[in-house]
Amino acid sequence: LVLAASREHRRVLVEEAPTAASRVFALLDFADVCAEAPLPRTQGVDGLRELVANSQAGSVERHSARSDAEAEILDPFRQGPEIFARMAAQADPALATVAEMTRRVFADDCRAVN
Q1: Which residues of 57-90 are buried (b: 16+ CB within 10 A; e: fewer)?
Q2: Measured between alpha carbons, how far is 57 from 21 in angstroms, rounded to an integer?
Q3: CA distances from 66 to 2, 27, 81, 113 (A)
Q4: How wide is the angle at C-alpha 69 spanned by C-alphas 80 and 75, nearest 5°?
């Protein structure tokens, strides 16, 4: 699973590694997948693979209500604190959604380790 900051970044990654296309997403698109997808039937790494395989990375952006611009995380490089705050406001909720799905997918594995 590779998460990019924008769909354009995703496209570049897929051009470089076409065989990985089904596993590369723009972060905001994958957060939408995590928010809407049912919990996979399997747990752990296999569950994560199932979630990614069922999400059809290439079609996610085609079926999204977001435009390419709306699916882009701001680039804070060499920007001031305001841009960093705006980037965090975009990325943090998406990362929390992805993290929650990941916790649910790995729930049994995590309990086994603890």
Answers
A1: beebbeebeeeeeebbbbebeeeeeeeeeebeeb
A2: 7
A3: 20, 12, 26, 39
A4: 25
Q: Measured between alpha carbons, how far is 32 from 36 in angstroms, rounded to an integer?
A: 6
| Confidence check: pLDDT of 110 > 60 | no
pLDDT, tens digit (0-9, with 9 covering 90-100), for 40-73:
999 999 999 999 988 876 677 777 888 889 999 9
Q: Do 43 and 108 meet the contact criterion of CB atoms below 8 Å apart?
A: yes
Separation of alpha carbons 100 and 83, rounded Å: 26
State how far the alpha carbon of 57 is from the alpha carbons of 7, 25, 30, 62, in Å: 11, 6, 8, 10
